[in-house]
């Protein structure tokens, strides 16, 4: 039998190149970077995963910082120096206190799990302030002939590369800043040849430490990204339907539950629909299961296209039954979109000679609107009742459950069946 120009004939392969290409692009690591959406997920995951280690590091840094503030006041005779008009000592104390304040803000965010989008910038600022302040005070000690620990800068460089919620590039930028600032400030503050010779050696060591720390951080982040990617792929495979590529029942229901919670907070409308391919058992019996699988893949792609907005959801509930959630859509607009979907399935012109409804595959849809309070089981029950009503009223149509009349019709249909 000759198929129309835009028809799908049983046995004809459904184009499947695009989805795998998109999947390959989504799961590829370019250097140390995913595609934008996955990269955002990775950074949120890393920030949450490293929250405890970051908190431990910052509390440790806070304790050390408080000890050094006390030592500075004692060793520099801070109060007397300030009274005598020494401007370096007040500046050093101010830098210590500013860094202390930023440390406390960062610790408070981690303790309360309130992590804004600019959180990584605050982490970078804390580390940069610690490095800059320590450099300034160490040079002050040298100028006054007091004992100082140049190795502290090496420790700070190492600390920058600890798991504190920063990426390799962010950590490298901070470490390089600390090394450059230390080198530049030493040449500005230190004038004696002995100090300069010692400072040059220290600067070389700092840049070497940046290089070694950077290599280690790159290798660690690469391994972290590989592990994240593997877990994410396993999760996606567990939540997706292997035949159609859209969400399976478990993945769809999990996402719907999250969407309902979000809708309650945002106060936005939702349209929830259940879709069923009409007379699909007859299709499988007539054309075979392979043709049935090809038809389902094509239908699933059309349904997924109908849920094209970011918060819309589409999933295969099982067999020839699909679910669709339209987020932030009023009932009248949702009904119009579902009616277009019914027409779009018809336009596929998938031949169905065994159907008493039409000579091609059609779908029936039962839909309902979220009332802002109910849970998914109640929403599903009303959409399912509307689906039975849609079938009872002739199929190849949308029935919207706005009243209990639809549910009564559904119950009567089931009773007769």
UniProtKB/TrEMBL annotation:
<keyword id="KW-0548">Nucleotidyltransferase</keyword>
<protein>
    <recommendedName>
        <fullName>diguanylate cyclase</fullName>
        <ecNumber>2.7.7.65</ecNumber>
    </recommendedName>
</protein>
<dbReference type="InterPro" id="IPR043128">
    <property type="entry name" value="Rev_trsase/Diguanyl_cyclase"/>
</dbReference>
<keyword id="KW-0812">Transmembrane</keyword>
<dbReference type="GO" id="GO:0052621">
    <property type="term" value="F:diguanylate cyclase activity"/>
</dbReference>
<dbReference type="InterPro" id="IPR029787">
    <property type="entry name" value="Nucleotide_cyclase"/>
</dbReference>
<feature type="transmembrane region" description="Helical">
    <location>
        <begin position="151"/>
        <end position="169"/>
    </location>
</feature>
<keyword id="KW-0472">Membrane</keyword>
<feature type="transmembrane region" description="Helical">
    <location>
        <begin position="202"/>
        <end position="219"/>
    </location>
</feature>
<keyword id="KW-0808">Transferase</keyword>
<feature type="region of interest" description="Disordered">
    <location>
        <begin position="1"/>
        <end position="23"/>
    </location>
</feature>
<dbReference type="InterPro" id="IPR000160">
    <property type="entry name" value="GGDEF_dom"/>
</dbReference>
<feature type="transmembrane region" description="Helical">
    <location>
        <begin position="91"/>
        <end position="110"/>
    </location>
</feature>
<feature type="transmembrane region" description="Helical">
    <location>
        <begin position="52"/>
        <end position="71"/>
    </location>
</feature>
<dbReference type="InterPro" id="IPR050469">
    <property type="entry name" value="Diguanylate_Cyclase"/>
</dbReference>
<feature type="transmembrane region" description="Helical">
    <location>
        <begin position="122"/>
        <end position="139"/>
    </location>
</feature>
<keyword id="KW-1133">Transmembrane helix</keyword>
<feature type="transmembrane region" description="Helical">
    <location>
        <begin position="174"/>
        <end position="190"/>
    </location>
</feature>
<feature type="domain" description="GGDEF">
    <location>
        <begin position="268"/>
        <end position="403"/>
    </location>
</feature>
<dbReference type="Pfam" id="PF00990">
    <property type="entry name" value="GGDEF"/>
</dbReference>
